[in-house]
Every structure is written in structure tokens, then in C-alpha cells.
Amino acid sequence: MPVDPQETDVILGRATSTGSTTSSAQTDSLGRNLSATTAATIYSDYDVSTSKIGSSTLVRDNSVGSYGFSSAGPSTVQHSDTYIDSANGYRTHGGSIDSLDRSRPSVYGAAGSPPGPLVDHDDEDDEYFTESDDPDPDRFVNFSLLSHLAVRLRDKVTRGTHVKSSIPYPRAFTGKDIVSTIQSQIQRELLINHGVSTADRRAALQVARSLQSQLFFYEVEWGDKPLQDGVEDVYMFLDDLEGNSESHREREELPTAVITMLTRCYVSSCSEDDPCYSWACPRRRVSVLPTLVTDISSTSEPEITAHSEDWPSTVDPAILRSLPESEVHRQTIIHKTISQEEQYVQDLDTVEALFIRPLRRATHIMSAVELDEFIEEVFGNILDLRECNKRLVEAMYVRQREQAPIIQRIGDVFVEAARSFRFAYPTYVGHLPVAEKRFKEEIEANAELRLFLEECSRQSVRQQESRRLDLKHFLSRPSEHLQKYPLALEAIMKETTNGNPDAYYLAEAIQGIKNLQSVSQLRTFQAGMGKGPTGKWDWHDLVAKDVRDGLSKSEAKRQAIIFELIKGEMAYVKDLENIELMFVQPLRAQDPPIIPRDRLENFITDVFHNFAELYGHHRKLLDQLHDIQREEHPTIKSVTAAVFDAALSFREAYMEYIPNYPIAAYRIDDEMANNPEFKAFVERCTRHPDAGRLDMKNFANRPIPRLLRYELLLQSILDETPAGHDDREALPQVLEIINALGKDTEPGVESAKQKVQLWCYNSNIVFKQGESDMDLLNENRSLIHAGKLLRQPETGFEWNGWTELFVLLFDNYLVMTKTKEKEGVTKYHVNRRPIPLDLLNLASFSDPATQRSTGILRLGLGGNRHVDSGAPATPGSSMPESAGDSRMVYPCTVHYSGRLGGLYMLFTESQQARAEWKQKLEEAIGLRKIVQESNKVFEMEPLSTDTFLMPAISASTAAPSWNHDNSFTGKVTCSVPFNTADGRPLVAIGCAEGVWIGFRHDSRSMRRVLHLKMVTQCAMLEDFGMFLVLADKALFAYHIEALVPSSLQSAHTSQTPQRVNGTRDVHFFSVGNQGGRTLVIYMKKKGLDSVFRVLEPVVEKINERTKTPASFTSRFGIRPARSEWFRLYREFFLPSESFDLVFLKAKIAILCTKGFEIMDLTDFKSVTIPLRDDGHERLAKRCESCKPMGMFRVDNEFLLCYDEFGIYVNKHGGPSRPTGTIEWEGTAERVAMHWPYILLFDSRFIEVRHVSTGLLAQIIPGNEIRCIWDGRGTSNASATTGAEGFHQAMNQDPRIHAVMSTPESIGQPGQAGRPRAIVQHVFELAPTVPLYPPGSLASPSHSTYFQQSNSPPHSPSMVPTNSWN
To answer: Is 1314 helix (H, G, I), strand (E, B) or coil?
Structure first.
């Protein structure tokens, strides 16, 4: 339809001649009058807001066709020694083709001419295209002037010999050459001077039509149709027509016009940085874009349309009558083939116009990034196919132009097309199943996309009026079209006469396209990744029968096995990929989360471990196998090199993954058993189409059988490999690597199975209330032995039956349980308190065998009675046995040294079982001792080994006092370390006979400094230089200089000590800091009440010189006057018996018969903990029967320690952990803390436990062990010890002193006949390694207590609330 002639004035600045009135007629890029569309292999659209034209969608390289045919994109062509095939734009340099290796001659030459160079250049024109020395040849060119562009076109356009209607025209060019040359010029100008980059060629086409209208060049047949961006028409310059002169003529007149969109601003002061005042200034980039959009859109872009008219109707009847019928049929088929190709290209244009472009802008459907991903995955390289087929149509048009009306040769065109298709079509067709699947999934999940595409389909009806095609049809169009080529070519070949050289080319083209179909089928198989319909294909399905028949039976089998290896690898890689898509990503994206966020990542790591690393190795291997398959299909020589390289690469990854599988299976089962939402999630995933009915555990197990499959397949390939083949030597090496990998993972798998077994026991062992956890989740825990043992009936009635116990021997505990099965799960109910191996001794394993009783009534006497001196009897729960049961049983007796311990007699059913239990118990106890010795938390460092002696006499006999004749010091009761003013590290040790002071770790330096009786407690106030001693219920204060003078001239060496209390009624005292004050609190009893006096030292009085000479008696603290060194700060009483007092941060805690009395000294308000309200009756009774021993703060909780158990309470005093109490192994006579451990002193051993979890860390055995210093008793002790100690930095200095008696008494040296003495070893408990607060309770692997890898005392892998069951 003609347009207004003034339309071109927008671009050119003036009206053109009348010949230009039809210059905007809608034509296609190949010279036919068609509807407008875009050109080149881009998705382009105009968006003013983006400040640039086009390229808003996928942009592809237009310089040379991606798959063979060059595009219509811009290019600057050097003239010298360059030959251009006008039909397809191939550029040849020195005989080679840039984009495609063309081994056979070009078929796009002139009619009847032999294959060879298609472009013939005149040597004289070389001078016009020689390189210029000017570094900027464009600096004098104004691209907004049509005359300048005309000169550039004349200089740059590529000339050659082109044929039209069988007439060759030298120095000619096509419309496409003109548009390409102009486009290359103005596109650069737009980019450099206007900041606009566009590959749209419509502006260049409009400029070319303006030049045509001014007869700057002419159509060789002097046709009057407008120039098109195609190859159908041939043009020449008038200068070249006039006599074909050898010398270049200058035109007297050049075309003139102004191209407004390329104009620069005429204002002299205008610059890039400072544009002028005009709103239309080209340097104002925003004003350029609307002009360009308006100007370019006014020019119709050509597109290809199909023609429905038959060939006979277009040919002169006389010519038609002269042709044989077969030729008429042949020409008709050729013409129909061209029409079908035009329709196909038009359909591909429709895909871009109706679907791709609108989708790019449909950001309401999904985000821009997701849209790009969706378009790329669904449409693939469909626009590359369009460019390939456009070039094929152009080649057909050239052949029509050259040979019309009778096309003599068409096969060579399709031979070249088949070569150009060889990358594009297999890529697209192979990707089609994936694209269709993604399209289907997105349509089902995205309703907006579904409605959008339905609207696009309705638009196709409005535009085409003949048919309504949905996107699914368009996606499958290339695959269907490729299958039609052989049919059409075979029909043409059938009508081709014998002797016609075109028959050879047709046969070649048919074979080439069939090969394309075979390659496409292979690509489809590879894209299917072993899933879906293609997953059922075998080697014979992809190989032609004639190829299979040409192979030997052995080779065919070998190829089938190689194919199965590749097919299996695809399915395996797809499954690894599905782990991420089906499990990992949904678990992370679920909101609310299926698995709590705090343990989700740990769960994913435990279950899938390093699967991503495996995926990377096998993805690389699969890519290599696919490359080999594409290059060598249908007969592959070898895949050994790729598999060999992969086996070396993935070894470490499998060494890590395979041993983790037992852990993964356990985590999945455990989560499914305890998390219904997770179980439902796994079931949903199992129903996923890609899951193949496999659940999460099967996916986690997938890599393990794959390794075994490699062995089987590679061995099968080796068996079928002929002698002399390279694989005969290489394959055994690969098999050896894979076999070794399987063997090397076995120890790790066994270790993981043991770990999982421990986890299962941990989950299924049911503890009694208050029994402690056994740290089974520790990464170093191991199960040494397990089996059935029998226990004798506890009553005299035989129908109670013998109890069958399932006994578990771990590396830290011996556990006796009864098994109960419920819903397929075996639970292990603890029958007796778990026995720590540290406290277990083997009593007797050699007693003779005995028979079970044969009578109904059995007296509870005799040797068969179970001896259990500590634990209460528990009736057996098994069914009554027959009265005639007389099986032999073999007794095993062990001794438990704990508070609830005693002798345990168990029975085995065979001598062999008893011997095995004895061996395993000895092994476990020995191993435990070794491990504990090498990983002990504290070790004993002696302070004094031979100074303190006690007489080895009975308690009824009066103990002799210390005198010069004997060295008895009496029972050691207390100690305190301190430093003198001159920095000497000393220790004071109180005994029944006085106080000794000496250097630490030096027994010989110990000297008696105070001759006091019944010393029970001492403390040191270093800030005041004061030493406090409680002796015989009297509290004394000494200046340390009077006891250990730093110099003879010291002012306090002769200072008289003071008695702090008036009467001998002090039971204990405590020293601490509160509110910036150093306080001394002592307790005295008054009837049933406890009276507390709070004293504060007076610095001035302490440092005063003694005004009166010290008397003999005052030196022993018997002065009646009240102490002047202290002033009374507070006084209060508690109507209860008190045992100790602990300083908290702002309050004090009094340990009394009622529990823990928390009191504020400012107002004496108090509260008793733990709370004993409703719901805690059992705890209340337990607390009343036990004695409080200590109180320690743990984060936001407090640990209350009684002599038999401990309990965590919150800040309000209520129990904070549902697991109840922590039962001590012994009876605590004293409790001390060295963060992060608490130490419980039983007379037989020291129990070391984690303060935050209560887990047993170490047991230190001994004899008559007592704690004589718990870290308190110094003025700065509260900074590092006590309830608030956890706030401070970790202290490596020993904070606890203890004393232990030697097992045997010794005679006093040199004193025959004297009483035998018991040596008391005084020692301090020193930490062996740096002590840090416990780490995350959920990750034992991150514990930092011990550096050794086999340390049992690590923290458990559980949350605190599950510490005790």
C-alpha cells in the first residue's frame, strides 16, 4: 500500500522524487511485496525508557550466521582478494570460509558456470579500497548528509558478478549489499555520536530507497519496484554502466538530502557535557530516541510470506508446452518446496512476533530474570533456525533469479543447507523434549502465563485468519519440517531425468538431511538424560539396520554396552541433579520450614553430604561421553580415557560420600519417625514424575550402586574388546582404581554403621527419671559388645521367672536393659543405673555353673541369690517358665563402686559366652583407663606429700597431739593459696593441730605458723594483708606479715592478732565482694536459728601500729576485746540450720535445710529455691531428704547441687529442664567449680562433670579424698569462682585443693615402736589443657575441650533439654 511521499521527509529532510512514493510499499527482505516484520537474528523492540533501541531481548551475532549462513547484519567488507557469494553471504579469504568448512565447490554460481569464485573484481578498482594512512578516515564525513553516505556507499559496497535471468552482470551488487553497507555506516554513527546501538536495518533501507529514487544506482532490468533488503534484484552504479570505463569518473551531481536522525547540533557552544538550550538537540539523548522510533517505525520491515499460486500459472504456456511432463512435475514440486519453506520461515517469524517479544515485556507474569530463563529454555535456538532457513530461502530466490522460469539445479542448494543445519537443528531438536517439559510444567503452575499464551494464540488467528496454532505446535514445527525435507527431495529426484547432474546433488542432500535426523535423534536421547520415553531407547534404536548388520556380533554387543554405560551415566547425573531440585531447594524454600531452620543445614549436610561435588565430577564425565558419542556415533571406539580421568578425579569425593550413607539413612528415618510434615514431604517427592517412585533414601544411596555398576559394565566392555585394541590395556587399570575405591571405603562405612547403631541406641534407650545421659552421640563413642544375660529372680516364688536382660557395653558405660517392642521399634528400658567403666570392677568370672531351680517354691537363701547391696530389687517382667527348666547358667559377678552400687551377679547360658563377656569387659575397662589417662580434664599436682600425718589408730582411741616427739599434724581440713607482698607464692594448710605455711609444691618448706587446735577453715584477704582462721569455732584475724614477714623491718611483724567473734560459736564463715565492698560473713547457731553477722574490714585500723605490747595470751587470740579491724555491716538470722553461704552478683545464697535461700542484704528480703509448688511434689520430697552443697550459674540458669543430685533452675527458681535431676555417681561431700566443670567429692573418687550439661567427663579415684579449698576464701576469689564465675575469662591456674590418704599406714622413720602414721597427700587439681566453655550442644565435632581425636569427654551432640532422659 503506497504511503505519503512526505513520510520520507522525516528521515531525509526533504521530499524525494515522485518515484519514491512507492518506496515504502510493504515488501519482504527478498524483494517480494509482503507484510512488515523484523530482520536479522535478534529479538528487537523499541523502548523509549531504556534509552536505546532494540536489544531489549536476546541478541545474537549477526556478522556471520551462527550456523553457517551469514546474517543480514552490519559488516564492513574489505574488497581485496575477497569473494562474496551473493546467495548466502559466505565470505572467503584465500580459499577458506569463515563460518563453515566447505569441502565441496560452491553451488551458488552463475547458471551453467562451473563451481569456482563467484565474484570477479576489476583490478582498477583496487585503488579505491586501499588502506588509508589517515588514523580517522571518518573525521571529514557527515553521515547526516545523503551525499556523504552516497560516496561512502560507492566506496564500500561490495561489487561482483551476479546473474539474473541467465545474464551475468559484472561489478553488480544486490539490495542486501546496499542495505548492509549503509547499515554499517550509520550504526556506528548512532553508537558513537548518539549513544544508541541498534541492529534494525529499516533506517538503512529507507536511506537506500532515497538513493535509488535519485538514480544513484539502478536495477539491471530497470524495474521500478522499490529496493528490498534481499538478493532477488541486482543493481549497478551508473558510473559502471557508462562504457565500463577503466578510469573512475566523478559524478557531476550526487544525491542530496538531510538525514535528520543523524544530524548534529549546529549551535557552536553545544557540547557533549553541556547540551544547548534546544529540547530537540541531538546531544540530549532523551530527545533522540522518540525521533528514531518514529522515523524507523514508519518504514516497514520486510518478511517472508508463502505464495499459494502453482508454478504452471506463472510460466508462459508456450514454454510449458515444450517441457516434458516429468519436468513440469519436477518444477511444480520445486516451486511447492519453496512455498513450504516460505511458510515455515513465516511461522518462525510468528513465534518471535506473537510469543517471544510479548513475553519479554510481560513482567507481570514473572520477573525479568525468570522470563529470560524461561524463554531461553523453551525457545532455545529457534531464531537461529530462522536465520538458517532464511538463507536457504534466499538461496532458492537467487536460483530462481538466475534460472527462471525453469530451475535446472536445486540439489546443491540443499546440500549446502544440510551443512549449515548440522549444528542448529540437532541442538534444537535434541533440546525439544526438555523445552516441552518445562513449558508443560510452567503452564500447569502459572495461570497467568496460561492466559497470556491463549491470548497470543487468538492474535495469531486475527493475523493469519486461516488457522489458530498454539505455542506447542510452533515449538514442534522445526522437528516436523526437518522430517519433510527427505520426502520433498525424494519426490524431486523421482522426477529428475537420468543424466541430470542434479540427481547426484539431490542424493547427497537426502543423505545429509537423514544424517541430520539421526544426529537430532541422538541429541534428543542425550537431552532426555535417561528419563521419559527416550530413557527406554537402546543402541539399536538409534542405529540404522545396515550399520548394525555391518558389525560383528561381538562389536555390536560392545557398542550396546558402551551405550548402556552412557545411558546409565545420564540417568545418574539426572538423579544427582534432582536431589538439588526435588529435595534441597524445596526444603530451604519452604515457609514455614518443614525442618527447623537451626538444624536444616545440618540435616541437609548429613543426608546429602558432598553430593554437589559428585555431581560436578559426573557432569564433566557425561559431557565428555556426549562429545565422544556425537563425534563417533554409531560406533564408538573407546570411552576409557574419559572414565579413567573421572575415576581419578572423583575418588576423594566418593571416599567422603560413601561412608556417610549410613548416617544419611539414619537421619532420614529418624526425621520421618518424628516429623509428620517431613514424612508427607518425602511422600510428595516420591510421587514426582522424575522420582521414578524412589524416595529420599534411594536418592541418597544412588552413588553407591553406581560404582558397582561401573565395575560390571567396564568388565563387560573388556570381555567384548578385540585383541590388539587399546582398551585391552587401559580398562584393567580403570577397574583396579574403582575396585580399590570400593575396598578403601569399607572401614569408613563400618565406622559410620557403628555410629548409627549408637544413635539408634541413644534414641531407643529409655532412662528412668533422673538417670543421666551417657553421651552416646559423641563422635568418638563406640559399642564394644552387646548380648543377652540372665538375672536371678528377686523373690522366693519361681513364677516370677528369670529376667532376661539385654546388656550393652559401650566404651564408657555398662548398661543393663529390658527390651520391649512396639510398632516395630525396639525400646531398651534401663533396668539398673548405667555403670561408668571408671567405677566398674570384675569380681568373679570363675564361679561354677549352676542350674535353674526346679521347684515352684524357692527359698530366698543360698548361693543362687543375686547379690545386690546397693540397688533396690526390681521384680522380673518376663513370663513364668516351666517348673522343669534345668538349663545350666554361668555366673558373672561385677562390682559397681557408685552410691547405688554393689555386687551384681548376672548369668550367661554358656561358658563361651561368659569368657567372651569377661574378655570384652577387661578390654573396655583397659581402653577406658588409657583414654581417660591421655585425655583427663584435671591432673593432681602435689602440694605436700610427707608433711601431714595422722595416727593409724581406731577412732575410739584419743589421737596424740603434735609435739616434738612425733610429727602428727592431725587431719588436714582446709587450705588457701596466696601471694605475699614481695610476690612469693605460698599456700596455707590448716590441720587439727594448727596452720602450716610453705611454698607451693615444696613439702620441705612447710612450717607451722599457728598453734591452734581444731582448725576447720581459713581464708586470705590479700588486699588487706589479712589471714582469717576458724579454729575450734572461734574466728581469728592475723596480719600476714606477722605470720610470714616479708622483711625484718616490717611494721606488722609483731602486730597482735584479733579475735573476730566473742564466743566460740562460729560454725562457718564466707568471704566475698558485693556492692564494691569486701565482706566477711560468719554464722553462729542460736537454738535452731542461724544468726549471721556481716563484717567489713577497716583499712585504717588494720594498718595501725599496735599501741600496747602484745601479751602472750593475745597472741593466741584470747583477748576479750572486740576486734577493731572489722565493723559490723549487717546482722540477720534465718530460722533454719545453715551449712554454707555463697556470694552471688547482687545477693547471697544461704544453703540450709530448706534449700537455697536467696537474700538481698539491703532489705533482707529472701526467696527459697527450688520452688516447691504444685507439680513438683516429688522434687520437693527429694530436696528435703538431701543436703544442699553448692550453687553455680550457667548462662541464664542456675545449677543447684545437692549431695545426691543436681538440678537446673531458672532465675525464678523453677526447674528449667524437663529431664529432671542429674544423679551423681557418688555422694557429694563437697562441691567445687573450675569453669566449665563442677567437681563432686566423694570419699572414694572425684566426679568431674560439665557444668552446662551434667555429662560425666572424668573420675579421679582415691582414698579418703576431701576438698580442702573450693576456690573461695580469697578477696578476689569471686572473680573467677562461684556462681558468677562463668562471666570471667578462663583461668588455667589451679582453683581447687584436695587431700587424700594413702591406702596403707607407715611407721615413723627412726622411731621404732611409735604409732603407725597415715600420710595425707595434699594436692591441687590443675587443668591439663585450656578450658573453654562448652560449644554448640548440637555439634560434638566442634568441641574444643580436647585436641585429641579420641577424647571421650566431649560435649554431646544434642540440645540441653535432652541431656538427661
So the answer is: coil
The Cα–Cα gap between 129 and 1098 comes to 110
Structure-derived torsion over alpha carbons of residues 782, 783, 784, 786, reported in degrees to the nearest 10 = 180
Q: For residue range 9-61, what is the model confidence (pLDDT) as tens digits?
A: 333 443 333 333 333 333 333 333 333 333 333 333 333 333 333 333 233 33
pLDDT tens figures, 1019-1037: 999 888 889 999 999 999 9
Please count the residues of the chain: 1365
Distance CA 249, CA 235 (A): 18
Residue 792's pLDDT is what? 82
% of the chain residues with pLDDT over 70 = 75
Whole-number pLDDT of residue 883: 37
Distance CA 154, CA 216 (A): 9
Q: Where are the beta strands (DSSP E) in 1112-1229?
A: 1126-1134, 1138-1143, 1148-1152, 1155-1159, 1166-1169, 1188-1194, 1197-1202, 1205-1209, 1222-1223
User: CA-CA distance, 348 to 540, in Å (whole number)?
Assistant: 34
CA 555, CA 184: separation in Å to the nearest integer?
56
- Please state, in angstroms and rounded to a whole number, the distance separating the CA atoms of residues 1124 and 1102: 8
Q: What is the DSSP letter of 1290?
A: P
Phi, psi of 777 (to 5 degrees): -85, 0
Could you report how far apart the first and last alpha carbons of the chain are, in Å?
Answer: 90
Helix 640-657 to helix 611-632 angle, to the nearest 10 degrees?
170
- Please give the Cα distance from 702 to 707 (Å, whole number): 9
pLDDT, the chain, mean: 77
Using the Cα atoms of residue 487, residue 492, residue 494 and residue 500 in order, give the sign of their dihedral. negative
**Angle at the Cα of 1226 from the Cα atoms of 1224 and 1230, rounded to 5 degrees:** 90
Contact 1219, 1236 (CB under 8 A): no
Q: 66 with 425: CB under 8 angstroms?
A: no
β partners of residue 1018: 1029
Q: For residues 293 and 291, what is the distance between their CA atoms, to the nearest angstrom?
A: 5
Top pLDDT among 690 and 86 is at: 690
Angular region, 271: left φ>0, alpha ψ -120 to 50, beta rest: beta
Tell me: pLDDT of 1157 over 80: yes
The span from the CA of 12 to the CA of 295, in Å, is: 10
How far is CA 429 from each of CA 432, 433, 483, 539, rounded to the nearest angstrom? 5, 8, 11, 19
Q: What share of the chain is helix, strand, coil (3-state, %, to 5)?
A: 40, 20, 40
453-462 pLDDT, tens digit each: 888 877 766 6
Torsion angle of alpha carbons 1165, 1168, 1174, 1178, nearest 10°?
A: -170
Q: For residues 993 and 1038, give the distance between their C-alpha atoms in angstroms, rounded to a whole number.
A: 17
Residues 6+ apart with CB under 8 A from 946: 1003, 1319
Alpha-carbon torsion angle 681, 685, 687, 688, nearest 10: 140
